[in-house]
Model the fold of this input.
Amino acid sequence: MPKKILIIDDDPVIVKYLQAVFSDNGYASCEAGSSMEGLDRVRQEKPDLITLDIQMPGEWGPRFYRRLRLDKELKNTPVIVISGVDGDHAIKDAVAFVRKPFDPEKLIGIIKNTIG
Done:
């Protein structure tokens, strides 16, 4: 069964692009358009890895991340931040920070190193 990646991003163009990149590299993916929806999806889908946008309507990425880390079952899920915003914005132990626009090869390299 392929490893599953949850994409949390409010930009449908980015989501579609990431889905294509992950699919081409043998990963399954699911998505959430906001960090609130993201928490529900993590609980439902139990992804192997999460890509997280920082700047989204409603609730910013760091708040989602803090909530994720408070959940005993989910707190060890690796997170890669993919954002157009500079800096890590209080997500210190993310696996990586990838700036938009990003190089898909570089992103896949990080994912392979993290979850195989």
